[in-house]
Amino acid sequence: MVAEVWVDGKGVPVRLSQTAGATSVVTDFLSFGVPVSASAPPAAETAETGA
User: Fold this and answer.
1) How far apart are CA 17 and CA 4, in angstroms?
2) What pLDDT was estimated at residue 35?
């Protein structure tokens, strides 16, 4: 896997690019230190995966 991280002037990551074979994923980070609210989905909407 190849990964690249872009950081801003404060040293905070703003983008992560990952490539493994033919698959590439880019993630942009928009906010840090901001309160969030999250809850787990119902069990019927989840699945187990194996390695």
Assistant:
1) 5
2) 94
Residues in CB range of 19: below 8 A, 6 or more apart: 1, 2, 3, 25
Q: Is the pLDDT of residue 51 over 70?
A: no
pLDDT at position 16 is 98
25, 11 contact by CB (below 8 A): no
- Whole-angstrom distance, CA of residue 21 vs CA of residue 3: 12
- For residue 17, count other CB atoms closer than 10 A to its CB: 14
* Burial class of residue 6 in the structure, from the number of CB atoms within 10 Å of its CB (0-12 exposed, 13-18 middle, 19+ buried): exposed
